[in-house]
Amino acid sequence: MPEAANIAGEVKSHAGWSIFLGVLIVAMGVFLVAYPFLTAAATVLTLGIVLFGAGIVEFILALRFQSAGDFFLKLFSSIIYGITGFMLFTRPVMGIAVLTVLVGSMLLVQGIFLGVLAFRVGAERGRGWLLLDSAITLVLSFMILGQWPASSVWAIGTLVGIAVIMRGITRIATASAMRRVATGIEDIYKRAA
């Protein structure tokens, strides 16, 4: 039983650090939401670098294929990745505008899909939650697409910031639950001793 108490103590210690990191992640998410255009620009630049790198890797992989069909398919793929990455990196404002339209369109399709799905499932299986999710997703897509290109200034950065905030909150909640379980194990050990 002393092993269980030691493990519980270690879990509590690690959970404390995880909660601390969660708070930092939430703070970073708040910063990202406060400066959405800076966040969007950093996101687009990072995506540009990644896609350009993927283009280089695809080109190297194309050289390894022996059949002409496979070679040209990989070569075409490398060119698309490379050009897209280069364009995003060299023209981040245009990249933000394009990504904003893509995100708005994706949310529109997702909102329609969720609405259709809501009517296909029964009320006891979460129809209300699906309809709420669909409505919120559709409103967000209409806000983004209806205000485009002005929405490019806030949409991507705000969505990335909210995602980071949610990640931090999830980390805090999970670590807090782990800490409660570890405390319960320690309490059981103390009562047994």
What does this structure look like?
This protein has 193 residues and is mainly α. 88% of the residues lie in helices and 0% in strands. The chain contains six helices and no strands. It has helices at 2-34, 36-62, 68-90, 92-120, 127-146, 155-192. Helix 2 (36-62) crosses helix 4 (92-120), helix 2 packs across helix 6 and helix 4 packs antiparallel against helix 5. The model has no long low-confidence stretch (mean pLDDT 84).
Q: Outline the biggest β-sheet.
A: none
Helix content: over 70%
Radius of gyration over alpha carbons?
24 Å
| Separation of the first and last Cα atoms | 9 Å
Mean pLDDT figure: 84
If helices are DSSP runs of H or I spanning 4 or more residues, what is the number of helices? 6
Structural class category: mainly alpha
- Count the E strands: 0
State the shape: extended
Q: Helices and strands, in N-to-C order?
A: HHHHHH
Q: Strand percentage, roughly? A: under 5%
Q: List the uncertain runs.
A: none
